């Protein structure tokens, strides 16, 4: 090893401390804590916020299953307000889609029946446990349009064997999302048309008012099972007429009050 003039240990420590302080102040998210540096830097998952230079850092991705009666029926369950159930996707499954862009979305491995599920997504600025429904919306920072992309054949296959569906729901790029809009500007979403078209043909077409469990109720129920925190996002379930896409298909998602979101399957 090449010998260089070596600074004293005290100098090294002082330099390191100053560098750490500068890094923490300038670059790290407010929630970061001082401590050992990671040996390999891992990118932070974040979602752009419309009208803000700051981004929304994602902590966890929760999804609610069968939250529209007609979709519950098509998936074989009773729509009569059986308790909501939840699953998670890995945080780095996020695929951000900018407004006006047609984002290329890779057709995933292993599946021959790849399905679209258009959904409203709520993004939390705070959380807690056992949050009462009447306080739940106080924790929502904003909303986005999302796609809970699903390898349906794998999900169904695992369900038939009473095994976890994870491989059907939790894979790279499976959490497609548009930018977040602050609820302070848009208000909360309790009703409004939601739709998805494939190559110009409308496939899913419903209204948020048909959700079995509202966003507030979803947060309340979810917080009984998990301590929710800032950075958590919740895919709130899809309406009926989920269906397959193939390479080359262009999907156009619409939610009343938000800009459209579009992807092309490649
Ligand atoms: Mn879904």
Polypeptide structure, described:
- The chain has 266 residues and is of the alpha+beta class.
- The chain is built from seven helices and 18 strands.
- The strands form four sheets. Strands 3, 4, 5, 8, 9, 11, 12 and 15 form an eight-stranded mixed beta sheet that branches. The protein has a five-stranded mixed beta sheet with strand order 6-18-17-13-14, with no helix packed on it.
- Mean pLDDT is 89; it is low at 1-28.
- The structure holds manganese (II) ion.
- Residues 63, 117, 119, 148, 235, 237-238 line the site of manganese (II) ion.
The outline comes out as globular
Unique bound compounds: manganese (II) ion
Q: Bin the helical content.
A: 10-25%
The helix-and-strand class reads alpha+beta
By CATH reckoning, the class would read Alpha Beta
List keywords for this structure.
single chain; alpha+beta; Fumarylacetoacetate hydrolase, domain 2; five-stranded mixed β-sheet; 7 helices; 18 strands; 21% helix; 30% strand; globular; binds manganese (II) ion
Topology (elements, then pairings):
Elements: H1 9-26, E1 46-48, E2 55-57, E3 61-65, H2 69-74, E4 85-89, E5 94-96, E6 102-105, E7 114-116, E8 118-124, H3 133-136, E9 140-148, E10 150-151, H4 152-160, H5 166-169, E11 175-177, E12 181-182, H6 183-186, E13 193-198, E14 201-207, H7 215-225, E15 233-235, E16 243-245, E17 250-255, E18 261-265
Parallel strand pairs: 3-15, 5-11, 6-18
Antiparallel strand pairs: 1-2, 3-4, 7-10, 7-16, 8-9, 8-15, 9-11, 9-12, 13-14, 13-17, 17-18
The chain binds manganese (II) ion.
